[in-house]
Amino acid sequence: MDLTSEDVRDILRVLDGLPYGELQLETARFRLSLRRTADGGWTQAMEVLADPAGASAGAGPAAGHEAAGPAADGVGPETAALTEEGLIDIRAPLLGTFYRAPRPGAPPFVTVGSPVEPDTVVCIIETMKLMNSVTAGARGTIAAIVVDNAQFAEQGTVLMQIRAAR
After folding, report:
1. Edge to edge, what strands does the sheet with 140-145 contain?
2. pLDDT means per 10 residues in the chain (166 residues)?
């Protein structure tokens, strides 16, 4: 089951009727943090976690390349998958605007050559005013940044590529 922007909106509607000011939700695939603001609105942070099977070093190039596209059951693509060239794709977990930095004027999360670990935040995808952190999903160095900053990206679009650590 994928958590969509509509799902987050539904969760916020339910929370609006409750006295709670914060919700932390974590699954094997993502972490979602919702917090009520002083004006009664909500802030949201979502971190998409890499699928361990998609980023495993034991997978051959053909198997990894297969995992890079949308699954046959309609579930979205893996966050990171091995490409035929031996690079690991970091794909957009959902559609939205790709940002390399946490805010305008701030340094980018990573640049080409930056070392990354599986839990390193490499960018954010903004969907309906919600900022969603995207993690590297693998250990290595950033080999390429494929999408320009502030560009729209469809779900599954390759955002960056990682050269896996040996």
Report:
1. 80-82, 87-91, 158-164, 140-145, 115-116
2. 69 73 71 73 65 38 32 34 71 91 93 94 88 91 94 92 89
Measure CA of the first residue to CA of the last residue in the chain; give whole Å: 33
CATH of the domain at 78: 2.40.50.100
Is there a contact between 120 and 95 (Cβ–Cβ < 8 Å)? no
Per the structure, the complete domain to which residue 76 belongs is given by: 48-164
The reported pTM is: 0.55
- As a whole number of angstroms, the distance between CA 21 and CA 107 comes to 31
* 45 CB-side CA count, 13 A: 10
Same-domain pairing of 123 and 90: yes
